[in-house]
Amino acid sequence: MAIPGGLWVDPELATGPHSLEVDAVGRHYSDHCVLSWDLAVDPAPPGAARLPRTGATTQKYIDAVTLRLLQFPTVFATTEEVLNTVATIEDALNGLWSEYAEVPCPCARSKTWWNGRCKRAADRVRRRMADADEARWEYRSSAGLQGHLHPASTALRAEWGRLQQDLKDSRKDLSKAVKATKREFFDACMKRSNPKLISDFVAWTKPRRQSANVQLKMKDGSAADDPDRVSWAFQEQFTPANPKPVDMRVVEQMSQWPERDFVSFSKLELEEALATMSNT
Predict the structure, then answer these.
(1) Other C-beta atoms within 10 Å of 278: how many?
(2) Residue 238 included in any domain
(3) Which H, E and C letters describe 86-148, residue by residue?
(4) Is residue 127 domain-shared with residue 191, that is, in the same domain?
(5) What's the superkingdom here (predicted)?
(6) Distance between CA 275 and CA 280 in Å, rounded?
(7) How many domains does the chain contain in total?
């Protein structure tokens, strides 16, 4: 069986359980065509049920387990009572786990941050790639039959170049969508995390260490080592709500210099001095 482009395939390969087909679009930059066929594959097994590390559902599960365990006795008379209690606890825990745990539902790319925006961008990339491959195949076929300088080949080459540029733009859009989605996803994860465990994710959230040579002190001598205490110390020092009255006796106790006469000067001297001064 002859295929456009000079490829020959045995007709027997196109029949039978494999049903081979020639994918001319998938040639890319090779001189060989791609043989494709359908392969029956079982669906992926479902994942195991799990609980998130933190959250309202996890807290409800912990509370339910705590209340259920408090209902069991702590003193046993025989070995049979111990075995029966253990079996009952196991059944109770399995029931609570089945009630609160959920099977995760991964997306098409098995990425928890993958969302609709990324999927739409990836679909556009796949469509642009298929269009560019088809345009390249048409251009090469026309160039092989009519020559590269034929008007039809020239038009197909221009169309191929336009589709390649569209493919590059689509890939850039996909990269931007992935970066933005990852940033939003991991920022949300940090906000939902337990504050006690936030230091496991980022180190810059820890309190800044005070300098060894400069440290603000409170009235009682303790260090102002957090923003609230620093703000309170500055406010009480410079702009207090109830300022202390000023003791004017300090002014009276200052040493006074003897009075002396003011040196007289003329109007001309004043005008000359003002002329050499700036307006500011």
Answers:
(1) 4
(2) no
(3) HHHHHHHHHHHHHHHCECCCCCCCCCCCCCHHHHHHHHHHHHHHHHHHHHHHHHHHHHHHHCC
(4) yes
(5) Eukaryota
(6) 13
(7) 3
